[in-house]
From TrEMBL:
<dbReference type="InterPro" id="IPR018062">
    <property type="entry name" value="HTH_AraC-typ_CS"/>
</dbReference>
<dbReference type="InterPro" id="IPR018060">
    <property type="entry name" value="HTH_AraC"/>
</dbReference>
<dbReference type="InterPro" id="IPR037923">
    <property type="entry name" value="HTH-like"/>
</dbReference>
<keyword id="KW-0805">Transcription regulation</keyword>
<dbReference type="InterPro" id="IPR009057">
    <property type="entry name" value="Homeodomain-like_sf"/>
</dbReference>
<feature type="domain" description="HTH araC/xylS-type">
    <location>
        <begin position="176"/>
        <end position="275"/>
    </location>
</feature>
<dbReference type="Pfam" id="PF12833">
    <property type="entry name" value="HTH_18"/>
</dbReference>
<keyword id="KW-0238">DNA-binding</keyword>
<protein>
    <submittedName>
        <fullName>AraC family transcriptional regulator</fullName>
    </submittedName>
</protein>
<dbReference type="InterPro" id="IPR003313">
    <property type="entry name" value="AraC-bd"/>
</dbReference>
<dbReference type="InterPro" id="IPR020449">
    <property type="entry name" value="Tscrpt_reg_AraC-type_HTH"/>
</dbReference>
<dbReference type="Pfam" id="PF02311">
    <property type="entry name" value="AraC_binding"/>
</dbReference>
<keyword id="KW-0804">Transcription</keyword>
Length: 291
């Protein structure tokens, strides 16, 4: 599907708005117009430039929307926008849903902000796909679009730069070597200084990168990796003593391991292992009865 000189717009006319996430409108404006909304829009509103240039005014700030740049607005946020070139073409989505605020809170995206795609046409291609599905299936906006909208938000979180800060994927690329080193050295007595040395970064900058990428400190991330490895061992080697599991995953002693595991998983390692052993016993019983 190629963008043309004609506007494309699909509106969810369903009165059923109880879905966790729904698309109210989705479309393409070949010639974007002037909009002034002193009281904002009642749904979340995402707008991205395809061609030309526009200006988006928000909270007294002017944002220049060139190709690849977009704005995500929260409901009822006063704003206005207008063309700055003879032709300004955009794609847009307005959406809501009972879970929309919760999802955006969890993604740390429930604020009005400017986004920049890091891969050319990535998001406009996603919108094209969604528009094509909407044009072929009148029920798309009621069910499948809820899934598509969730996927869109996840990719926006991962692939786009917010307010000119690196995207999650860019953070991941930068941190991937040190994360792999941490995974290989879980059993070793390593801490923040060793992680910073391996990354060849200052401790303060390393902390900043990990908080931006994962929402936790480097050491907290290391503990999560150790707990993940411990869970794998508890399931795959159920006869292995807890003391040995603790030692092989970098914990100083079994009491520290148990206390940390309980804090993170809300149960002891022994209880976690027993739950999986019970599951296997049930499956074995089901196989026997089927036979």
């Amino acid at each position: 599907m190629r963008w043309s000189d004609e506007n494309i717009r699909f509106v969810d006319t369903s009165l059923e708005r109880s879905l966790p996430l729904f698309i109210e409108t989705i479309g393409y404006s070949a010639w974007e117009r002037v909009f002034v909304r002193p009281e904002g829009y009642p749904y979340y509103h995402w707008l991205q430039t395809i061609e030309g240039k526009g200006c988006f005014e928000l909270s007294g700030e002017r944002i220049w929307l060139t190709p690849g740049k977009s704005v995500l607005l929260t409901p009822f946020t006063p704003h206005s926008y207008y063309p700055l070139s003879p032709r300004w073409s955009t794609v847009y989505i307005t959406f809501g849903g009972t879970a929309a605020p919760v999802i955006l809170d969890a993604l740390d995206m429930n604020v009005s902000a400017c986004y920049t795609e890091t891969s050319p046409s990535f998001f406009s291609d996603l919108v094209k796909e969604m528009i094509e599905k909407a044009s072929q299936d009148t029920e798309f906006s009621r069910y499948e679009s809820s899934t598509e909208m969730y996927r869109f938000l996840m990719l926006l979180k991962k692939m786009a730069m917010r307010n000119d800060r690196p995207s999650l994927s860019q953070y991941y690329d930068k941190l991937r070597p040190v994360v792999r080193w941490m995974e290989r050295n879980l059993a070793s007595n390593i801490g923040l200084p060793e992680i910073a040395d391996q990354a060849n970064l200052s401790i303060s900058y390393l902390n900043e990168l990990f908080h931006d990428a994962f929402g936790v400190s480097p050491y907290s991330f290391l503990i999560q990796l150790r707990i993940r490895e411990a869970k794998t061992m508890l399931i795959t080697h159920p006869q292995k003593p807890l003391k040995e599991v603790a030692m092989m995953t970098g914990f100083n002693d079994v009491s520290h391991f148990v206390a940390t595991f309980r804090r993170k998983e809300k149960m002891t390692p022994a209880k976690y292992r027993d739950l999986h052993l019970e599951s296997e016993e049930v499956n074995d019983w089901n196989v026997m009865t089927d036979a």
